[in-house]
Structures are given as C-alpha cells and as structure tokens.
C-alpha cells in the first residue's frame, strides 16, 4: 500500500475538482458555472479531509475524557483539517449566495443568463460606445482636412 | 485495504458519477436537485472519514441551504440551460486534464493515505491537543508547552514509533524498522490530569484542564485555537447576507410585504409544521450549545434554526414570518451575532489578556472561562448564521414576488 | 528631508516660480500681468548677475572643491537635490536670464499683436520654463540636472501646443515624444548606470566621476563607451541627428517661444548638458584616454552638414531657422568632442554667441509675421523697404550665423578654428569651412530678396496661405480690441514697437558681443582652467 | 475592567478588529450621512493605529512584533506578525482607505440608492478589514479566510455599479468566478504545504521546508509552489491572469474603483511576498525555482501589452484600469529581481502606486460626478472648467510616467537600479523605461483633450467638483508629490523591508 495505491484517494479529489473546473470553463450557463464552482471547491474539501485520516483512526471526539476512563481508545483522526474545511464550506456557501444574487440581477437587466449571449451584448454596448467617440473624432479630422483644403 | 478505504471507494464512485451528471444534465432543476444529492453523498463520505462536524455541515448547507438557494434562484432565471451544439468543450477538457495531471503529480510525494507518520499527524497537532489552560507563574494562561509534558512522546504516538522520524515524507524505509502499532495512539495524557494537585505551572491542572471540558476537539480547535478564523468565518456569512440585501432588496417604499404562496390551507402541512417547528428550534439550540461535546456547533445549529423559520414562511407565507421576525430585526440580529463573537474577544482583551483569550473570563478557573467563551461565541455564530440564512431566503423570495 | 534656503542660486529658481504664481493671479489684468513678467525677469537677471564676480574670482576652483553644495531636498536616501554654481552654468544662466527680459518685451508686442488666446498660461509656462533653466544651470549633480531637464521639457510643452490646433497638438506630440523617449530611455538609464557603477556618486566635479570605477575594473571600457553613447543620445535637446526632428516640429509655437526657448533655453540646455556631462562627469582627459568619444566628432560633423543642406531647401522661414539651429548646435558638440581645453572654451563661447544671433533672427521672423502675416521666404521680396529695422537686424543675425566679423559668431568660430589647429583635426576644419559656405548660401539670399528685389504689385493684402494653417487662425476681428496695435490689413509698416525695440537690442548685442565679450570669455576660460 | 487594558500591545489586533466591529455596527447607523461619518471615523481610527504600529515596529529590537491571538502559542494558534513590510503596507492600505472614505460621500450619494448606504458602508469597512487582516497575519490559513472576506465584499462593492451600467454585474460575476478559482488554488496550495510541513504558521512552515531534505525535488512542494503562484497571480491580476480587472474597475462605483485600485491588488502582491519570500524563501523561489524568470517575463509582457492597450482606451477609468495592470507589472518585476534594490523598488511602488492611482481614480470619479461619464470626448476643455481635478489628474499621470519629483520616479529609480545590479536582468530595466513612455502616451491623450481642445455640449457648463471630493484627491496627489521630492522615509522603510525579506539570501 505504499505505492500509487496509497495515494489514490487523493486522485479522486483531483477528478472532482477537474469536473468542476471543466464545468466552470465549458458551460456558458451562469447557474451551471456557479454549481460547478461549488463542485470544484468540494474537491478541495475532499483533499483536506483525506489528509486528516489516520489508519485505524476514529472521530476526534474524546469520549474517554467524559468517562474519566484511562484506557487508550484507538487513534483519533486529525481534527485540524476538519476545522479548516468547516470554514471553507461556509465560505463556499457565501460565495454561492452572492453569485446567485448577481445572476438574478443579470437576468433582470440582460434577460438571459447564458454567458455567450451576455458577452455579445456587452461587446455590442462597448462597440457602440466606442463608435460614438470615434464618430466625433472622425468628424473632427474631416473638419480639419476641409479647413486645410480651404486654405490651400 | 481497510473498511474506511472500501466504503470510501464506493461512495466516491457514486459522488463522481453524480458530479458528472450535475455538469452534463440539461435541466437546471435536475442539476440543483443532484447538487443536493451530491452533498448528501459527500456527507456520507465525511462520516466515513470520521469528520462528523464537516458531515453535519455538509448535510445542512449542501443538502439543505444550497439547494434551497439554487431552486429559489431558478424560479427567477428559468429552468433550462440553452442547448449547446457541441457537447464536449475540447479546450476546457485539455486544460482541465493538464491541470489535473499537475495536481496528481503533486500528490506523488505525499505520505500515503492514512499514514500515521505524515507530518500533519505528528508535527504540531499532538502537542496542540495536549495544550491545557491553567496557570503560568500564577496568572491564567496557556502553557507553552506545559511543563512536564513530553512532546517527543506524543510525536511518537506514546512511544509506539521508535527510531528517528524522518522529515522527508517520501522516506518510508524507517517504518519497517519501527515498532509502530496502530492501536491506542494520540490520546492526551489524561492520567496526568487526575494526579493530585501540584503547584501551578508544573502539572496539568485537573479542574482547569481545558481539553477536559471540551471533548470534541474539532470544536476546541474551531472556537479556541483557531477561534480567530472562525470569527471571520462568521463575518464572511454576515458579509454574504449584507451583500444580498445590497443587491436584491427592493427599495423600502415598495414595502417588504409581498404576498407569496401560502399553503396554510392544507391541514396536514399546517399541523405537521406547527408540531415540528418547536422541535426543530430546540434541536437547533441543542446543536449550538452542545457543539463542545459532540458534532455540531454554532454554524450547524444556526442552519437548523434557519430551516425552522423557512419552513414557517413556506407554510404560512412570508407575511407571517415578517410578523415573527421583521426584516429590521433580522438585519440587526445578523450583526449581533458577529458582535457577540468579536465582543467576547474584545472583552478578553479589555480584561488585560490577548484578544479571544477566553481564560480571562474566569481568572479563578481559567478552564471554565475557556469553556464559557466558547459557548458565547458559538451562540454568536448561531445567531448570525440563522439570521443570514433567513435574510438570504427572504431576499430570494422577495425577488420572486415581483 | 526638505531644506528651505534663500541663497542666490535658489533665489534664481524661486524668483521665476514666484513670478509664475503672481502672473497667474494677475491673469485678469493684462497690463499688470506683463508688468509682473518684466519685473520678475529684471529681478532674476539682477540675482544671476550678482553671482558672476565670485565665479570669475581667480581662486574660484580652490574654493569650489571645498564649498558644500546647496542642498534642497534628500529625494532618496543619499541622493540630494542640490545646486552648485560653476562657470559653465553661470554663463548659461546669464544668457537665459538676460535674454528673458528682451524676450518678454518682444512677447508683449507679439502676443497682443497676434491676438493669441490663453496668454496667461503662456506667461506662466514661460516663467516656469525659465525656473527650470535656472535649476538646470546651477544643478550640482546629475540627478538634479535630470530633474530640471525633464521639468524644462514639461513646462515648454504647453508653449509648443499653445494654439491647440490639430497641427500644434501633433507637433507638440513629436516634441514631447522625442525628448521624453530619449531622456527616459537613454539619459535616465545612463544616469542610473552611473549611480550603480560609481557606487552612488553623481556629483559634478572637473575630471569626472568614473576614475575610480575605471581604475578598479568594475567599469570596463566597452561599458564606459556605452554609457557615453547613452548620454549623448539621451540628451535629445542637443538635437544630434537623428533625434533632431522635435526641433522643426516645435516651430509651430508662437515666435517668442521659438525665439527664447528654441534658440536659447531648450536647445542650449541640450548642448549645455552635453558639455557639462563631458566636462564634469566623464572628464575630457578620461575620454581621450579610453578613446570612446571620437565617434561624436563625425556624427556632429554630419549633423552640421546635413542640417545645413536641408535648410537650403526650406521655404518656410522658421523652418529654415530651425535647421540652422540644428546645425549650429552641433558646432558646440563638435567643439566639445575635440576634448581639448581650448575646444571646450570654444564650445562654451558658441553657446553664448549663437544665442544672440539666433534670437535676433527669430525675432525678425516673428516681426514679419506680425506685421505682414508672411511666413514663407518666397513672399519676402522687397520687404526690407517696408520693415528696414527688422531686416537690418535679420542681416546682422545672418552674419553672426555665418561667422563674419564684427558679430558674435566670429568670436566663437575663431576659438573653434584655433582648437582645430591645436588638436590637428582636419575633418573638423573641412566641416567648419563647408558649413560656413552653406550658411552663407541659405541666409544671404533672404537678405538679398528683402532689400534688392522689388515688391510684387498685387501682394498688398495678406491672404491666408497654406502655411498660415500652421500658425493657426487668429484673425478673428472680435478679438482685435485685445491688442493695442491695429490689425494689418493693408500695406504694412514695421511691427509694433515692443517687437522692434526687442530685436534692435538683440541685434546690437550681437555686434556688442564682438567687441565686449570679456565676461563670456572670462567664464569660458575659467571653465578651462578648472580642468585637471 | 479597563485598567488592565493597553492599546499599544494590542495594536496588531486592533487594526483588524476595530474595522470588523465598526463595519458591523455601520448597519445600525441609520440613513443620511450617518453611515458615511461612522465609516470615516472607523477608517480614521484604523489609520491612526497603523501609524502607531509603524512606530512600534521601527522601535522594535527584533524588527517585528508578534501577537498571539487567544494567547495560544504561535505554533498552534494564530499569530500576527508585523515587520517593516506589513507595517508599511498596513499604513498604505489604511491611509488610502481613510482618504477614500472621506472622498466617497458625495460620489456614493449620487451613485448608490439612498436606502442602503448603511449596508454599503458596512461592506466597505469590512473590505478594508479583510485587506488589513491579510496583511497583518502570520498564519497561512488565516490569509485564506481574510482573503475571502475581502473578495466577497469586493464582489458586492463592484456590483453596486449596476445602477450606472449593467456591465458592473457581469464584471463582478466574472471576478467572482475567477477570484474563487484563484482563491481555491491558494487554499489547495496551502493544503499541499500543510501536508508536507504539518503546520500553518508561516515562519514554522519556512523552517520545516528549509529542514526538508531535497525540498527542490519534492513534487508536492513544487506543485504547491505552482498552485500558489497561479492563485496569487489571479488575485493580484498579474498579466495574463488579469482579465477580470479592467472591467471590474471600469464599472465599479467611482469611490470603489479608487479604493480597490489602491488597496486590493496591493494586498495580493503582499501575499505573494509572504508566500515567495517568507514561506518558500529566496533560495527556493528564486534560485532553485525559475520564479524570477516566470514572474519577470509575465511582468514585462504585462507592462508592454497593457500599456499599449491603455493607449487605445477612450474611457478614462478603463484606461486607468489597464494602467493598473501595467503598474502591477513594475511591482512584480521588482521583486522578481530578488535583490535589495529590486525588492525595495517593488515595496515602495506598492505605496507610491496606491497613492497615485487612488488619486487618479478619484479624479476620474469627480469627472463622473459632474458629467456622468468620463471618456476622452467628454473631458475636452475641462482644464478650465475643473482646474483642480484636471491638475490632479495631470500630476497623478506624471507620477505614473515616473516624472522626476513624483513618487513614480522614485520607484523607477530603485527598479532600474535593481535591474542593472542583477545579472542578466537589464532587459527589465529597458522594459521599465519603455513602460513609462507608454504611460506618457496614455496620460498625454488626457492632457491634450483637457487643455488643448474646446469643450462641447454640457461639459462646457460644468463647474469644479465639490470640495469634499477635491480635497481628498489632492491629499493623495500631494502625498505622491511629497514622497517624490523627499522619499527618505519611504525609501528607508522599503530598504528595511527588502533586507528583512531577503534575510537569508545568498
């Protein structure tokens, strides 16, 4: 169990993360992206919790202390990664909530939640804006050229 | 291959399949529901890995709140993904494959799964767990590390690892030579705690033994050692709530009260919910209060409390909920939780200790002070979490009624 | 740390700064504004002239080594903004300060005569530019020099872009672009390189700062040569080809700007910096020993000849003057590049001598434009009869450019030829002779045309020529009440009196310099005597 | 109960908890000017604390101050560790935040609906809290938590530009997704390091990594390094991972743009300092690993590409945003040199750029306030209409160019000096210099439009922005000039920070 088999558990987290990452990149639907982002983060949680496992270990709740008993009771899994991941889970749900709020707002103003459509709208906006300023610049240039012509 | 690994493998297989389904299914509703299922499966995985608190949280958050949020959002944004012509996004696939390969490459030098010799198991955590709250030179404080405490012994799992422990996790040859046995490791020296009193600073203090009061080491880590992280975790939740108010709340003049769907005319629903809500609330408070003893804590309890309110709103309408918890009250309460937490820390500081040094709360029995502080902050977390969840629900629901 | 002090060199910077502030406050009352300008210029000259005797004192160099620099601010730990007076800077400051007064008088006539807009901005920027020039002249180390060099670029930019027409903005872009590119990419790199190699020593001292680094081998000869190239091309204001293009571009500015800044302050700031770097940073002797400076002679010589040839074919008067300036600047550089004590003297003298002649020429060009609205040489037939004073002054300026006695140009050319003999540099001799011929070829026809060709009959009403576009269109009658000189629409005479007074003075000075050049020669000799 | 309490020993934690508690209390400040006044008070107080903290650090014999939270020993609990570097960054972030809060009042009044000012300022103060928290901590995981606070607040703040332009929403969401992916990489990188070292304390991690035989060939450490580099690159908008930044800064409310440009990415860079120098150490990051090559190539490409892009922009805020990415390139190029002057230049540019860019975004915000837009066309002739604002813009622009006697020049000086001193890094010096030419190009388009073109339409009628906007703007611009004329203080602090970062450098 010391070879690749011993660390295969860490590979599944990579698989989950990558499924999530694929979703984030490949799916134009914003809700899908938000969900995929969640999967991506869950992969990391799995990594952390896997890190905490110890052979033959048990949950790190020390019942012996309550009993006042003296016997040793199997090794405990490492509580530190658990704590870190509790925090991370909270962070991920907060991020999800904010993302959803943004998506609702986007739906309200754009009428769609497909990223490619939104991007197209943004580009059109930008182009229109740019053209508006360009039109004026071009007009200025024309004016100057006409003036020059007039002088000549 | 032990049982953990076996069950783990099966569960993870299921999880992976679910994950693929979540990404690939076209109905967003199905995707959202599958997310709930995914979370429940994950909760099982956590249980299998003995991470009860994470499991509880995953079930409450992933299976509960996240799914509610997603479905609440789908009501506004439509239920289906736009059909895409090409199902497989090749660049994304290549990119993720490369990234994944890099990550796996990084795991190659890791200690194997469950290796007790992994640095994380023997470097700091054993000492951390053996920390006590007592008197250092007559004043309350943490002993760093307590005198008379044999760090080396803990690092060696109470003498079960002999010979040198190498720093390089790749080096596994030593394990064959060591007399490592797996049973009976990593238990704090409770026998020391029950020895007769000695003068302060030289022995672990039985009545003030902090770990003695908090059997759930996850909670002690969460609320004490890394209590500062948890304070900000609460703040993250608070921030999310405030952000949602900022982004979604309608202007005040339009009023809060919008008639949502009311199901109170259905007798069974009404009766069952009326009966169960008190129990849900009690359970929530129980989880908050008893986080030190078993799995659970402020966060999980807060989510449970929130579900009671949400259930109430679903059955009796949000108008009824607003009569119980008016938005200004919930707004204020979201902050109150964070203030309880940070206030507890500040009081410790004002009493002359470091920020969040709970032992300042009871100078005679620092261990009790530690315990009191942890309980206080757990309540803080619980209040903020429940009120923020309620606020988020309200904001999403309010949006629907327009 | 910032130190505040009122010693004379600092005063020389503060006075124009204060002037700029007062001018901007007095913006609403043109007469008061112009009075402030003149008073400021007078005060500045008084302060600058007051410093001269100390520099001319025989024991100056002995005290120079001992006297601490005047520290203004510690910009970086160990890097000070500091001033120190030395002969070359003194000479430069005197020329700039003295000509500012005349130029201010001229500006009043010109700006009002042509109904320019934004006159307050013009005077404010002008005063700021003069402040930068003073800082540049008295800079005590390379860092300070660079600070004021860049400040000069920045403060003169609004003057070049003054008209705000597309043409003006484009030209100003060229101006700023070339000057900033060269100074940032090469000069600054050179200065920081110097700082790194010398271990933080950037103080000007005769003989240069590199001796130790060269001696202990931390600075190799090729690196030393690269540093020299960085400096020479970094100082874009010296208009060494091919970075000279900003100078013709800057001619779009109102003529007083061209006159003072582009015949005196900015371009002279360039060659002044070149000279200062050669004398006080590299050290002529060190350059000779390592043989890294000889290429400069050929580049400068080529610049002289090519610029003169280009000037031959320019019909626009100011452009012809601009190319003449490019060529004349390289006289200074070629003299400096000979690296002998006498040639350094010649270079310093030519900075002064060229200033008087060139400002006269520009004044004359502006005078013609104001009075007759003519900008092209081909339009100048017979103008000498209508504007005799202007064209007489123009003739004197031309003679000075050619280097004929009794004008200023002869004095410096004389020293340059002496240095050429002394250093046995036949290439330079050939260049000087050829360029003298070329100078004559592009200046004398103008004089001839003005005085000896009859005025064409139909050309009495000035019309807007294509070249006018270059100078904008300020003939809007509703502005005419601004100026006290009536707008010329019919047969014209001389330009408004401030213009005539100013150009007469500079023309007189060009001749006077031939007879009374003691001060300039004294300072230049003092500079030479400081060389180790 | 207060007799045992002293401010000075608790300064490191007060810097973070005061804005935390203050931020939460902001929601109770009612309507009108209450929330703004409260936020100003809190940020002002924090600024005062950071000044005191700076004094303490400078006076400390060890060169740093350590604060163990909850009195848990640093190996087990969370430690705050303040040395010259974080004290300086804290001072910068707190100072600029304070001035920006002063500035925000009018701008926010106009751009954010009145009924949620209390929530807006709460998020605002919490953002500052998160940024300060990242800067002060010495615990790797605490960095992640506070990073998420600052990110979450920033997402919300950016999205509040939605009433002006709906693109604020997509900008915010894009940042949310990229930012979360980046933060996840950071989290995973920390996890890899935790696996190898068994600790979360930065100093402890460094010692463990140093003790690890053959860390250079440990694949876990290598991947952790790469993960952190990518994650931090996203957070600090290192080219080419900067895609989220231009849009976010362009469409955020004006005051938010000013706050973020001056603080958010700076803190990202600070994290890079900590991870590369303090945790991995110079020997690992820059000698064994080719971090200097990767970073300097990315930085140089960023300077050039974003410089050219900035020149092509017509929207001032977008132009400034691209310029920000380029300027971050300077900072990264500086510390990639891994020698004293390069790192010092990098540290000092964090401060200088924060001050200058803050002032510039404030000027752009003032134009927005008066005109409702800020493109090159609408600012024509504004030099006469809004003289103070445009003068501030020009002065700040000259700073970006690195004109002598502006703060930007000081940075440039150190960076070029560092590049000339490092072996074979002179191209960095060249890029730094060429980059400043690009800055001339985009700054000058504004100068030309504002001063040499005639106003048109409504911009001919506007007046100068209100004093409450102009004064803070000039505080920052004035500071950028002051610290350009006399950079002895900033120079010495950054040299000190650089030396302590490079401590064990060969």
UniProtKB/TrEMBL annotation, chain A:
Its main location: membrane. It comes from the Bacteria. The keyword Transmembrane applies. It is found in: Cell membrane. It is a multi-pass membrane protein. Keywords: Cell membrane, Membrane, Transmembrane, Transmembrane helix. The chain crosses the membrane at residues 6-25, 83-104. Signal peptide: none annotated. Belongs to the CPA3 antiporters (TC 2.A.63) subunit C family. This is Cation:proton antiporter subunit C. It comes from Nannocystis pusilla.
TrEMBL record, chain B:
Residues 13-77 form the MrpA C-terminal/MbhD domain. It is found in: Cell membrane. InterPro entries: CPA3_antiporter_subunitB, MnhB, MrpA_C/MbhD. It is a multi-pass membrane protein. Residues 268-391 form the Na+/H+ antiporter MnhB subunit-related protein domain. Keywords: Cell membrane, Membrane, Transmembrane, Transmembrane helix. It holds the Pfam family MbhD. The chain crosses the membrane at residues 6-23, 28-47, 59-78, 90-108, 230-248, 268-289, 301-321, 333-356, 376-397. PANTHER family: NA(+)/H(+) ANTIPORTER SUBUNIT B, NA(+)_H(+) ANTIPORTER SUBUNIT B. Belongs to the CPA3 antiporters (TC 2.A.63) subunit B family. This is Na(+)/H(+) antiporter subunit B. It comes from Nannocystis pusilla.
TrEMBL record, chain C:
It is found in: Cell membrane; Membrane. It comes from the Bacteria. The chain crosses the membrane at residues 6-23, 35-56, 88-110, 122-139, 145-162, 174-197, 217-236, 257-283, 295-317, 329-349, 393-415, 427-448. Keywords: Cell membrane, Membrane, Transmembrane, Transmembrane helix. It is a multi-pass membrane protein. Residues 139-437 form the NADH:quinone oxidoreductase/Mrp antiporter transmembrane domain. PANTHER family: NA(+)_H(+) ANTIPORTER SUBUNIT D1 (PTHR42703:SF1), NADH DEHYDROGENASE (PTHR42703). Belongs to the CPA3 antiporters (TC 2.A.63) subunit D family. This is Monovalent cation/H+ antiporter subunit D family protein. The lineage of its organism: Bacteria, Pseudomonadati, Myxococcota, Polyangia, Nannocystales.
TrEMBL record, chain D:
Keywords: Cell membrane, Membrane, Transmembrane, Transmembrane helix. It is found in: Cell membrane; Membrane. The chain crosses the membrane at residues 12-29, 36-58, 84-104, 119-137, 173-200, 220-239, 251-273, 279-307, 319-338, 350-369, 390-414, 426-444, 465-485. It is a multi-pass membrane protein. The keyword Transmembrane helix applies. It holds the Pfam family Proton_antipo_M. Residues 139-433 form the NADH:quinone oxidoreductase/Mrp antiporter transmembrane domain. It comes from the Bacteria. The lineage of its organism: Bacteria, Pseudomonadati, Myxococcota, Polyangia, Nannocystales. This is Monovalent cation/H+ antiporter subunit D family protein. PANTHER family: NA(+)_H(+) ANTIPORTER SUBUNIT D1 (PTHR42703:SF1), NADH DEHYDROGENASE (PTHR42703). It comes from Nannocystis pusilla. InterPro entries: CPA3_Na-H_Antiporter_D (IPR050586), NADH_UbQ_OxRdtase (IPR003918), ND/Mrp_TM (IPR001750). Belongs to the CPA3 antiporters (TC 2.A.63) subunit D family. The keyword Amino-acid biosynthesis does not apply.
């Amino acid at each position: 169990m010391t070879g690749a088999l011993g660390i295969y558990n860490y590979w599944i987290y990579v698989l989950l993360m990558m499924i999530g990452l694929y979703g984030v990149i490949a799916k134009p639907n914003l809700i899908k992206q938000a969900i995929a982002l969640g999967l991506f983060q869950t992969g990391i949680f799995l990594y952390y919790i896997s890190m905490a496992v110890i052979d033959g270990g048990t949950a790190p709740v020390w019942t012996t202390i309550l009993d006042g008993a003296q016997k040793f009771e199997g090794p405990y899994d490492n509580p530190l990664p658990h704590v870190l991941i509790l925090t991370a889970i909270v962070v991920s749900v907060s991020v999800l909530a904010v993302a959803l709020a943004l998506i609702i707002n986007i739906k309200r103003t754009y009428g769609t939640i497909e990223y490619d459509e939104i991007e197209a709208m943004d580009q059109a906006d930008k182009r229109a804006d740019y053209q508006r300023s360009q039109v004026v610049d071009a007009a200025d240039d024309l004016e100057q050229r006409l003036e020059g012509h007039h002088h000549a | 291959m032990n049982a953990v690994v076996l069950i783990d493998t099966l569960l993870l297989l299921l999880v992976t399949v679910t994950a693929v389904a979540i990404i690939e299914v076209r109905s967003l509703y199905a995707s959202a529901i599958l997310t709930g299922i995914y979370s429940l499966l994950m909760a099982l995985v956590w249980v299998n890995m003995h991470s009860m608190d994470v499991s509880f949280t995953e079930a409450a958050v992933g299976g509960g709140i996240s799914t509610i949020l997603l479905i609440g959002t789908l009501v506004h944004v439509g239920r289906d993904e736009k059909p895409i012509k090409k199902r497989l996004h090749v660049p994304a696939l290549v990119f993720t494959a490369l990234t994944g390969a890099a990550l796996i490459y990084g795991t190659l030098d890791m200690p194997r799964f469950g290796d007790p010799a992994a640095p994380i198991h023997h470097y700091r955590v054993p000492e951390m767990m053996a920390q006590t709250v007592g008197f250092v030179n007559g004043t309350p404080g943490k002993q760093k590390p307590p005198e008379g405490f044999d760090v080396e012994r803990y690092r060696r799992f109470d003498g079960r690892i002999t010979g040198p422990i190498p720093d390089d996790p790749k080096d596994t040859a030593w394990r064959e030579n060591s007399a490592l046995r797996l049973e009976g490791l990593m238990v704090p020296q409770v026998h020391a705690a029950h020895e007769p009193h000695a003068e302060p600073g030289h022995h672990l203090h039985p009545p003030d033994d902090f770990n003695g009061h908090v059997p759930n080491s996850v909670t002690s880590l969460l609320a004490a050692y890394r209590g500062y992280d948890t304070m900000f975790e609460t703040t993250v939740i608070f921030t999310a709530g405030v952000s949602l108010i900022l982004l979604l709340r309608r202007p005040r003049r339009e009023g809060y009260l919008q008639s949502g769907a009311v199901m109170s005319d259905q007798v069974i629903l009404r009766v069952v919910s009326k009966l169960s809500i008190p129990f849900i609330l009690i359970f929530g408070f129980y989880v908050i209060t008893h986080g030190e003893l078993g799995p659970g804590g402020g966060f999980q309890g807060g989510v449970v409390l929130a579900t009671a309110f949400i259930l109430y709103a679903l059955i009796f309408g949000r108008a009824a909920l607003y009569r119980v918890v008016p938005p200004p009250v919930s707004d204020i309460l979201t902050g109150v939780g964070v203030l309880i937490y940070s206030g507890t820390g500040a009081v410790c500081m004002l009493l002359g200790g470091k920020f969040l040094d709970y032992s300042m709360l009871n100078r005679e029995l620092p261990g009790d002070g530690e315990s009191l502080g942890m309980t206080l902050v757990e309540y803080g977390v619980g209040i903020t979490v429940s009120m923020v969840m309620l606020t988020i629900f309200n904001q999403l629901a309010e949006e629907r009624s327009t | 740390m910032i130190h505040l002090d009122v010693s004379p060199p600092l005063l020389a910077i503060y006075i124009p700064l204060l002037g700029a502030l007062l001018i901007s406050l007095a913006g609403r009352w043109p007469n008061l504004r112009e009075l402030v300008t003149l008073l400021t210029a007078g005060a500045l000259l008084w302060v600058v002239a007051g410093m001269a005797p100390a520099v001319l004192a025989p024991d100056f160099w002995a005290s120079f080594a001992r006297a601490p620099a005047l520290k203004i601010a510690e910009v970086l730990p160990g890097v000070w903004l500091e001033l120190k007076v030395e002969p070359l800077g003194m000479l430069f400051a005197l020329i700039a300060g003295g000509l500012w007064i005349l130029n201010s008088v001229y500006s009043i006539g010109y700006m009002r005569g042509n109904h320019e807009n934004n006159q307050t901005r013009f005077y404010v920027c002008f005063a700021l530019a003069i402040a930068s020039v003073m800082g540049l002249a008295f800079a005590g180390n390379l860092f300070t020099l660079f600070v004021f060099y860049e400040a000069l670029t920045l403060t003169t930019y609004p003057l070049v872009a003054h008209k705000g027409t597309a043409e003006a903005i484009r030209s100003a872009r060229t101006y700023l672009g070339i000057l900033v590119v060269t100074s940032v990419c090469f000069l600054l790199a050179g200065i920081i390189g110097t700082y790194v190699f010398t271990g933080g020593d950037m103080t000007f001292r005769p003989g240069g700062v590199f001796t130790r680094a060269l001696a202990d081998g931390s600075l190799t000869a090729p690196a030393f040569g690269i540093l020299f190239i960085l400096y020479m091309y970094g100082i874009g204001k010296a208009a060494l080809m091919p970075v000279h293009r900003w100078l013709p571009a800057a001619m779009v500015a109102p003529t007083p700007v061209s006159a003072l800044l582009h015949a005196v302050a900015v371009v002279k700031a360039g060659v002044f910096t070149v000279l200062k770097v050669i004398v006080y940073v590299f050290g002529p002797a060190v350059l000779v020993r390592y043989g890294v400076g000889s290429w400069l002679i050929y580049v400068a010589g080529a610049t002289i000849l090519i610029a003169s040839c280009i000037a031959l074919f320019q019909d626009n008067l100011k452009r012809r003057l601009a190319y003449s300036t490019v060529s004349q600047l390289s006289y200074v550089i070629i003299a400096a590049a000979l690296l002998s004590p006498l040639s350094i003297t010649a270079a310093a003298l030519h900075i002064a001598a060229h200033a008087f002649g060139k400002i006269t020429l520009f004044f004359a060009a502006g005078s013609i434009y104001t009075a007759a609205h003519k900008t092209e040489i081909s339009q100048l037939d017979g103008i000498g009869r209508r504007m005799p004073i202007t064209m007489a002054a123009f003739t004197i300026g031309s003679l000075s450019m050619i280097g004929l006695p009794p004008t200023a140009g002869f004095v410096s050319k004389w020293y340059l030829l002496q240095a050429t003999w002394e250093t046995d540099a036949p290439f330079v001799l050939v260049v000087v002779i050829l360029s003298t011929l070329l100078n004559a070829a592009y200046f004398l026809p103008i004089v001839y045309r003005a005085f000896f060709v009859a005025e064409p009959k139909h050309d009495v009403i000035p019309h807007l020529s294509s070249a006018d576009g270059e100078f904008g269109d300020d003939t809007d009658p509703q502005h005419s009440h601004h100026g006290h000189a009536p707008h010329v629409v019919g047969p014209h005479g001389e330009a408004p009196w401030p213009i005539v007074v100013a150009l007469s003075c500079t023309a007189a000075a060009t001749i006077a310099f031939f007879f009374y050049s003691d001060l300039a020669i004294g300072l230049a000799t003092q500079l030479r005597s400081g060389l180790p | 109960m207060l007799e045992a309490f002293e401010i000075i020993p608790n300064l490191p934690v007060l810097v973070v908890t005061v804005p935390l508690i203050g931020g939460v209390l902001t929601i109770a400040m009612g309507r009108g000017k209450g929330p703004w006044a409260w936020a100003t008070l809190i940020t002002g107080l924090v600024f005062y604390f950071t000044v005191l903290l700076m004094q303490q650090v400078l006076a400390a014999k060890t060169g740093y101050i350590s604060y163990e939270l909850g009195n848990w020993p640093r190996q087990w609990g969370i430690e705050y560790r303040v040395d010259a570097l974080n004290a300086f960054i804290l001072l910068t972030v707190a100072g600029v935040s304070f001035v920006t809060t002063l500035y925000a009042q009018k701008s926010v009044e106009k751009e954010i609906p009145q009924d949620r000012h209390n929530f807006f300022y709460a998020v605002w103060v919490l953002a500052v809290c998160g940024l300060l928290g990242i800067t002060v901590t010495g615990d790797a995981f605490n960095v992640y938590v506070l990073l998420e606070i600052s990110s979450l607040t920033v997402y919300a703040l950016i999205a509040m530009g939605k009433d002006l332009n709906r693109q604020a929403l997509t900008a915010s969401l894009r940042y949310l997704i990229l930012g979360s992916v980046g933060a996840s990489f950071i989290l995973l990188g920390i996890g890899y390091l935790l696996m190898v070292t068994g600790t979360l304390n930065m100093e402890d991690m460094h010692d463990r990594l140093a003790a690890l035989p053959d860390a250079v060939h440990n694949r876990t450490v290598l991947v952790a390094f790469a993960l952190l580099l990518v994650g931090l690159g996203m957070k600090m908008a290192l080219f080419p991972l900067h895609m989220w930044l231009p849009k976010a800064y362009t469409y955020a409310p004006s005051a938010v743009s000013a706050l973020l440009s001056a603080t958010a990415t700076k803190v990202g860079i600070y994290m890079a300092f900590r991870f590369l120098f303090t945790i991995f150490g110079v020997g690992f990051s820059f000698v064994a690993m080719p971090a200097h090559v990767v970073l300097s190539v990315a930085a140089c490409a960023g300077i050039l590409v974003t410089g050219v892009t900035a020149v092509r922009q017509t929207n001032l805020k977008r132009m400034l945003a691209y310029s920000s990415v380029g300027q971050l390139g300077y900072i990264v190029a500086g510390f990639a040199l891994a020698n004293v002057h390069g790192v010092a230049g990098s540290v000092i540019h964090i401060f200088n750029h924060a001050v200058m860019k803050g002032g510039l975004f404030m000027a752009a915000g003032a134009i927005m306030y008066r005109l409702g837009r800020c493109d090159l066309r609408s600012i024509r002739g504004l030099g006469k209409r809004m003289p103070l604002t445009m003068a501030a813009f020009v002065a700040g622009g000259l700073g970006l160019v690195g004109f002598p006697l502006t703060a930007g020049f000081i940075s440039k000086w150190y960076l070029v000096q560092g590049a000339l001193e490092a072996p074979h890094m002179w191209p960095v010096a060249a890029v730094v210099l060429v980059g400043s030419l690009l800055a001339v190009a985009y700054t000058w388009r504004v100068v030309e439009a504002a001063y040499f073109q005639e106003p048109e339409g409504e911009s001919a009628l506007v007046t100068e922005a209100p004093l409450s906007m102009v004064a803070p703007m000039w505080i920052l611009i004035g500071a950028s000039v002051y610290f350009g004329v006399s950079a002895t203080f900033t120079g010495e602090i950054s040299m000190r920070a650089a030396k302590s970062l490079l401590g064990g450098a060969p």
